[in-house]
Specification:
Helices cover 59% and strands 6% of the residues. By secondary structure, it is mainly α. The protein has 2 domains: 3-57; 60-105, no CATH class. Helix 1 runs antiparallel to helix 2. The protein is rod-shaped, with a radius of gyration of 22 Å. It binds zinc ion.
Length: 105
């Protein structure tokens, strides 16, 4: 999932909702104002939550580039296919014994 696109979408939705609110005044459409306010609240919450989710998920997933910089070998678990460090004996996610010969990245 690309968080940059989601964040841009949130910014876009926020902009649209602000335009709706501004337009509702000269057009004298209270329904437009209500929709605009609801959309504004939803999109602001969405836009704020995207970086928070991104931070949270980064904590859980190992950063391959960072590990390689540290001189560690990155391999995939043969059971759950998630990224592990070869120096670990068991998969940190599912506990399966890691086979150092397979799926080197
Ligand atoms: Zn695993």
């Amino acid at each position: 999932m690309n968080y940059k696109y989601l964040f841009a979408l949130g910014i876009f939705a926020t902009s649209v909702s602000i335009i709706l609110i501004i337009l509702s005044i000269p057009l004298e459409l209270p329904i437009l104002l209500i929709i605009g306010i609801i959309l504004l609240v939803v999109s602001v919450i969405f836009t704020i939550s995207v970086p928070l989710i991104e931070m949270f998920s980064k904590d859980k997933v190992l950063d391959i580039e960072e590990l390689k910089k540290q001189g560690l070998t990155v391999i995939k678990c043969s059971n759950c296919m998630r990224i592990n460090v070869k120096e670990d004996i068991y998969c940190i996610y599912c506990g399966e014994k890691l086979d150092p010969d397979v799926q080197q990245l």
